[in-house]
Amino acid sequence: MPPGSSENGGIKAAETAFEIIEVLHDQQPARLTEIADSVGIANSTAHEHLSTLQDQEYVIERADGYYLGLKFLNHGKRAKEYYQQLIEVSQPALQQLVAETDEAVNLVVEEYDRAVYIERLTGERGVPTNSWVGKRKSLHTLSAGKAILAHLPDERVTQILDSSGLPVATEQTITSRDQLLQELETIRERGVSFNDRESHEQIRAIGAPIVVDGRPYGAVSVAGPAKRLTGEYFRDEISDLLLGAVNEIELKLTYA
C-alpha cells in the first residue's frame, strides 16, 4: 500500500480530517484530547488537522472547545440545490399535511445507501424527535426509507443491504433480511409503509413513496408520538391523507 493511502484506496490524511469533522458534528464542543481519542490519533496529529481546518475556516476554536464553522452551512445550502425542484413542488402538499395532521411531516431521499431528510415541517402538536434536515438514518428503520427501498430495483436493494446491513436502532427494528423483503413486498401492494417505533422507542410514522415513471424520487412521512398515532387513525386516516399528498407531488413532477 502506498504511503499515506488507506485500505480502500483513499487518502489517509483526508479520511482523518473527515473523521474529525464527524466527531465535532456528534460531540461539539470537543477539546483536543477528546477529538484525538475519538479518532484514535496522537494529540499532535489532531492539532495539525484542526489547524488546517481552522485555516480553511471549517472549524472554529472557542473557550470551551472546537466547533464546526458556519462555512458548512453554505455548503449545505448548495448541496440541497439538486433537490430544489422536488422541495418546491412538494411544499404545498407538505403544508397541507401539517394542517390536516398537526404532526411532523418529512421529505426524505436516499443518498449513499442512507435516508436523508431534506425538508421537515412541524405542526403545533408536533414533538421534537432525533430527526432534522440533513439527518441521515438507516433506510430500513424509517417508514419513508422503507417506502423508497420498496421501489428501488432488486439489485439496488441487495447492494444497499450488503453494504449497510440492518443496524439496530430500537427493539422493534427489523433485523432479518427476509422479514424486510417481505415487508417491502407488502408496501408495494398497499402503497404505504409503517414505522412502529423502529427508529425511536416513542415514535410511529407512516410513509409513502414519490414515484414518477417507475423512479422513486423520495418519500413523504408523517411522524408523531406512538401513544397518539394508534389504531384506525394511524393505519387508515393518516395513510389516506398521505397518499393524497404524494399523488399531488407526483402529478406536479410529471408535468413540471
Brief rundown of the structure:
This protein is about 45% helix and about 20% strand.
List keywords for this structure.
single chain; 256 residues; alpha+beta
Q: Whole-Å distance between the termini?
A: 50 Å
Q: How would you classify the helix and strand content by structural class? A: alpha+beta
Provide a count of the helices.
9
Global Rg: 20 Å
Number of strands: 8
Mean pLDDT: 92
Shape, principal axes of CA atoms:
globular
Helix content: 40-55%
Low-confidence stretches: none
H/E series: HHHEEHHEEEHHHEEEH
Strand and helix map with partners:
Elements: H1 12-27, H2 32-39, H3 43-55, E1 59-62, E2 65-68, H4 71-79, H5 84-101, E3 104-111, E4 114-122, E5 136-138, H6 143-149, H7 154-164, H8 177-190, E6 193-196, E7 203-212, E8 215-225, H9 231-254
Antiparallel strand pairs: 1-2, 3-4, 3-8, 4-5, 6-7, 7-8
Helix pairs in contact: 1-2, 1-3, 2-3, 5-9
Protein architecture, described:
It is a single chain. This protein has helices at about 10-25, 30-40, 45-55, 70-80, 85-100, 145-150, 155-165, 175-190, 230-255, and strands at about 60, 65-70, 105-110, 115-120, 135-140, 195, 205-210, 215-225. The model has no long low-confidence stretch (mean pLDDT about 90). A hairpin with a 2-residue loop joins strand 3 (about 105-110) and strand 4. It is built from nine helices and eight strands. The termini are far apart. Helix 1 packs across helix 3. The strands form two sheets. Strands 5-4-3-8-7-6 form a six-stranded antiparallel sheet, sandwiched between helices. Helices cover about 45% and strands about 20% of the residues. With about 260 residues, the chain is of the alpha+beta class.
